[in-house]
Write a sequence for this structure.
């Protein structure tokens, strides 16, 4: 799910910056990351709140939190 939807901008599975920031070892809160996934960022990241359900967003968060460099 991450690779096909997020991997274009978050390089190497989120381990390196690309068009989007590096996600591994992010200091952002879980709440921040969930809201960013749901609502996106104007001009920078699409909103996925209507694409993914809460369980899928939770799985994305778990993936992000499990990343190492």
């Amino acid at each position: 799910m991450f690779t096909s939807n997020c991997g274009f901008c978050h390089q190497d599975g989120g381990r390196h910056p690309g068009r989007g920031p590096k996600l591994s070892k992010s200091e952002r809160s879980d709440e921040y990351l969930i809201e960013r996934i749901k609502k996106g960022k104007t001009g920078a990241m699409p909103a996925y709140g209507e694409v993914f359900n809460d369980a899928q967003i939770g799985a994305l968060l778990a993936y992000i939190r499990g990343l190492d460099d």
Notes: The mean pLDDT is 96.
